[in-house]
Amino acid sequence: MPSVKQTSIPGLLQIELDLIETPQGWFKESFQQAKLVDQGFPQVEFVQNNMAYTTEVGITRGIHAEAWDRYISPALGRLFTAIVDLREGATFGRLETFELTPGQAIFLPEGCGHSFCTLEPNTVYTYLLAAHWTPDAPRTMVNLFDPQLAVPWPLPKDQQHYVEADATAPYLDAVTPIRL
């Protein structure tokens, strides 16, 4: 039975999944709504399933907050992920970090910024979205290396592979909190 744990960011959930070892490898039930809801997961209707594949250690993206809930779980490899609450309120700017393997998942409510850094080559992760992605959807970005957030990246900056837009995004103090 999976377990769901509330974090210090309201609505951000850490999920431990059952990873069943087999002679051939392993099996997991990535998302089973009824079992998760029994553990305190919200009733969410996901409408899109995406997969991302990265070839190298140190692929780093984010910090992006989008206009939908997300459920993220690795299928292969390991990810360091940093989540920042960008919603208006007392927890604006609060940071939570996790290392995710295929036996874990996280649920990010709308308005929380997500970033990741791959810790193994050939990492694959899936993410479910509660709204359809479109290129013109609202997105709030925060600088990956904002000293106020001080994300404890597992690799030094010079060993990370990131896009310039993520490293030159505004710092948290210049971001308007997201009003939901």
Automatic annotation (TrEMBL):
It holds the Pfam family dTDP_sugar_isom. InterPro entries: RmlC-like, RmlC-like_jellyroll, RmlC_Cupin_sf. Belongs to the dTDP-4-dehydrorhamnose 3,5-epimerase family. This is dTDP-4-dehydrorhamnose 3,5-epimerase.
